[in-house]
Amino acid sequence: MNLKTKITLALLTMLLLLLGVSAFTLYSLNRLDRSARNVLQDNLYSVELGQQMLRALDRLQAQEAPLDTQAKHRFEQLLAREAGNVTEPGEQQVVDSLFSELTATERYLASDTTAPQLWNAHMGQLRQLTYRMVNLNTQALTRKNEAANRLATEQSGYVLALLTFAVLTCLLFVLSVPEAAVSGLRKLSASIENATHQDYSNSIPVESHDEFGGVARAFNRLLVQLQDYRTSTLAQLLAERNRMVSLVNNLDEGLLLVDENRRLILANPVAQQLLALPPEQLLNRPAEEIAQQNDLFRELLRHLDTPAAQRPTEAAPVLTLAQHDEEAYYRVSVNDVVSFNEALDKMEFVGSILTLRNVSEYKKLDQAKSNFLATVSHELKTPLSSINFSLKLLQNGKVGPVNEEQQNILVTIKQENQRLLRLVGELIDVSRLESGNIQLNFQAARVTEVVQFAAATIQLQLQPKQLTLDLQVADTLPPVRADIEKTTWVLLNLLANAIRYSPEQAQIHIRAALTAEAQPQVCISVQDHGPGIAPQYQEKIFQRFVQIPNQSGYKGGSGLGLSIAREFIGSQGGQLWVESELGSGSTFSFTLPLARPD
What we know:
Elements: H1 3-41, H2 43-62, H3 69-83, H4 91-110, H5 116-196, H6 211-249, E1 254-259, E2 263-267, H7 269-275, E3 285-286, H8 287-293, H9 295-305, E4 318-323, E5 326-341, E6 346-358, H10 360-396, H11 404-435, E7 442-445, H12 447-457, H13 459-462, E8 468-473, E9 480-483, H14 484-501, E10 507-514, E11 521-527, H15 561-571, E12 576-580, E13 586-593
Parallel strand pairs: 8-10
Antiparallel strand pairs: 1-2, 1-6, 2-3, 4-5, 5-6, 7-9, 10-11, 11-13, 12-13
Helix pairs in contact: 1-5, 2-3, 2-5, 3-4, 4-5, 5-6, 8-9, 10-11, 12-14, 14-15
């Protein structure tokens, strides 16, 4: 029998018991009511009639003559009513005797005899018979009252017994049915609690075939499947763990993992070798504690503490370490690890990964490339300068007359030679920047003078396209701390690019203003009305040897100008960036710090 049927039967039984007790109680009350009503209607009525008859006899006996006919008539009416209400054994004989005695009394009254003794004898006989009739009904009242009391007691006992049975039965259901419903839940809850602690051996005993029996069988099957799944999952996890451990340990890069509490929880052999610390002095220790004992880890922790927004996205920092009596170069990379927390329904920071990649070979190749560029640039600059001097002599006609066609050829050769000289100069600047040998001559400079000098220098380049300059530089701007020569070179480079890409008869805007920052700087911008730069190229144009063709297919120079310009501005403590939209021109801006007052 299932649990639903048990509960339904228990409720139906309780309902039937309630109905049975109520019905029997109503039956007993009705029976007692009928018994009491019969007593009141029959015997009590006869007693009242007898009392009235006695009062009528008192009036008759009080007046012998003349006869009280009204009292006699009243007695006859009451006796007639009593004759119609005979209910007890012997009561009919008494009523008949009263009628006989009443008839004898009437004969006596009809005769001429007036003996008082005889009249009193008739009255006494009528009174005695009336008392007898009253006594019969009084005794009947007492007897029926006792019978009613016995019936009430008996019915009360039956009702109490039935009520006791109903209460006991209901208590039995109240104690057994909820227990039957809850015991299975307690067993299920205990088994689930054990399962949450990865104990799948505590199955539920199947003791019935009801719903809980079905649930117990299904849950036991689930435990078996969970145990099998856990076993297989653990095997897979162990295999994956061993594979990941093997990969991490065999990496040729140093790998460190710091959790959200800033404890070092992983360090592969390469990282341990670089830090020169055994695993027991690294793992599960606070990062600050390790940093106090190890200079390299202190430097790594400094990169880790750098906010993510301020970490370099392209050129990660390179550390120089001494290995085997020679310098080794390792590129530091910091990556924050976030994970989705299902309980909180949000992403959470769980740690950071630091990697040390050996870039010594690339560094050597880069150094070789830089040396090659420096050597080639210096070697080319001398013959190019000599060629340029010879071209000037030919143009001046000091070595002989030159016709018009030869003059045009010399102009073209000189322009190309100048372009080669500029390229060689840029290559020399690049080699100096890479070697760190760039020399900066910082001094207080007025922005208006730098802008005006650059504008005057570029005037001849504006004429072929009939371009104009719009200068918006206030004389009240404070001096900046900068290398005037290199800052002017940057501004001329930006103006040359603006001239190159501007349409004919356009205007180029040069603006300078203070920035709204906690530490203000002067921002200088060059805006053109050229074709603009697509968003995906706006950062690439500052990389070396990168050229972005415009819609007309024109390519710029060597692709080094903007790269060198950013290096020059960055080395002076400023920034260089571009804001552009296709078809709306471009605005190149750079900042310079203010000069400190003496």
